[in-house]
């Protein structure tokens, strides 16, 4: 599959911004583009003709980009479609739900052609792996635990893992639920956890696994939107194997998992 074969839906109220976005897409050979000013007609059209990727602004006339991606994740024909936010919005209140829902990237306004290209290539890799679903001997017996208080985020991470032919997946809604599984004797080859969670957060989960569990060397991939350097340093000191920032880049997650699995030696 080539970039030029991607089918893209662009939702942007500004005609000028739509022109800029489609121009960047055209520069990568992408011509199959549907343009909308509002989200509701775009959703109706996508249900009958699902695209490979949605590029949307945050502030739309009829809903926010957060509302849009949340609705998409609840509709079976659209739940696996990659979502790219294009916005100058910087407020945590707007961006965090987008990160949790599994946006493949958040591009600022203005953005460069190169930034667009990185998001497009990540989308292409995700679609190719998802559609191929080829057996991977390295992952055949891999058991993964996904820990996140957001059901949308858990679902998105699980979809990523399934694209990598990882199908033995258990989930937990917070660190306390994860610890209950681990303490009950469930063994995992990889743990992917969020940082900010109620009850037991990602740092506390990591510390318990490293010091009190029967699988203290299991690789732990921490996924977070945390920006505080001291908190991130504390997480690293707790013993995480790798940190990955939200929004999740499929290519980055894929490379980290491959590295962690390859380096892990039981």
Description:
With about 270 residues, the chain is an alpha/beta fold. The chain folds into two domains: about 5-130, Response regulator (Rossmann fold), CATH 3.40.50.2300; about 135-265, Rossmann fold (3-Layer(aba) Sandwich). Helix content is about 45%, strand content about 15%. The protein contains ten helices and ten strands. The chain has helices at about 15-25, 40-50, 65-75, 90-100, 115-130, 150-165, 175-185, 200-210, 230-240, 250-265; strands spanning about 10, 35, 55, 80-85, 105, 145, 170, 190-195, 220-225, 240-245. The strands form two sheets. It has a five-stranded parallel sheet with strand order 2-1-3-4-5, sandwiched between helices. Strand 1 (about 10), helix 1 (about 15-25) and strand 2 form a beta-alpha-beta unit. It is elongated, with a radius of gyration of 19 Å. The mean pLDDT is about 85.
Short description:
With 266 residues, this protein is of the alpha/beta class. Helices cover 45% and strands 17% of the residues.
Task: Give the arrangement of secondary structure elements.
Elements: E1 8-11, H1 15-27, E2 33-36, H2 39-48, E3 53-56, H3 65-73, E4 82-86, H4 92-101, E5 103-107, H5 113-132, E6 143-147, H6 151-163, E7 168-172, H7 175-183, E8 190-194, H8 202-212, E9 220-224, H9 229-238, E10 242-245, H10 250-263
Parallel strand pairs: 1-2, 1-3, 3-4, 4-5, 6-7, 6-8, 8-9, 9-10
């Amino acid at each position: 599959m080539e970039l030029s074969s991607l089918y893209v839906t662009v939702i942007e109220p500004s005609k000028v911004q739509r022109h800029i976005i489609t121009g960047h897409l055209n520069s990568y050979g992408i011509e199959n583009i549907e343009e909308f000013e509002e989200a509701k007609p775009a959703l109706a059209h996508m249900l009958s003709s699902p695209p490979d990727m949605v590029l949307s602004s945050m502030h739309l006339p009829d809903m926010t980009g957060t509302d849009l991606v949340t609705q998409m994740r609840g509709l079976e024909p659209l739940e696996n479609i990659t979502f790219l936010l294009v916005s100058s919005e910087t407020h945590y209140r707007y961006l965090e739900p987008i990160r949790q829902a599994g946006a493949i990237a958040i591009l600022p306004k203005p953005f460069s052609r190169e930034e667009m290209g990185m998001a497009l290539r990540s989308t292409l890799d995700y679609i190719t792996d998802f559609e191929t679903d080829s057996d991977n001997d390295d992952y055949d017996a891999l058991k993964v635990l996904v820990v996140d208080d957001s059901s949308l985020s858990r679902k998105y991470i699980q979809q990523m893992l399934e694209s990598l032919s990882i199908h033995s997946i258990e989930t937990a809604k917070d660190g306390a639920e994860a610890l209950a599984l681990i303490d009950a004797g469930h063994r995992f080859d990889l743990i992917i956890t969020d940082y900010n969670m109620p009850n037991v957060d990602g740092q506390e989960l990591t510390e318990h696994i490293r010091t009190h569990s029967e699988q203290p060397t299991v690789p732990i991939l921490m996924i977070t939107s945390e920006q505080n350097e001291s908190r991130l340093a504390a997480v690293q000191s707790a013993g995480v194997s790798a940190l990955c920032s939200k929004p999740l880049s499929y290519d980055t997650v894929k490379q980290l998992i491959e590295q962690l699995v390859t380096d892990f030696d039981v």
